[in-house]
Amino acid sequence: MKKENILHIFSRMPNLETERLLLRPLRVADTDDMYAYAKDPEVTRYLLWRPHPNPQHTRSYLEYLAGRYRIGMHYEWAVILKEEKRMIGTCGFVTIDCANRRAEVGYVLNPDYRGRGIMPEALTRVLRFGFDMLGLHRIEARFMIGNDASLRVMEKVGMRYEGIARDAMLVKGVYRDIGTAAILQKEFHPE
Question: Is pTM beyond 0.90 here?
Answer without folding.
Answer: yes
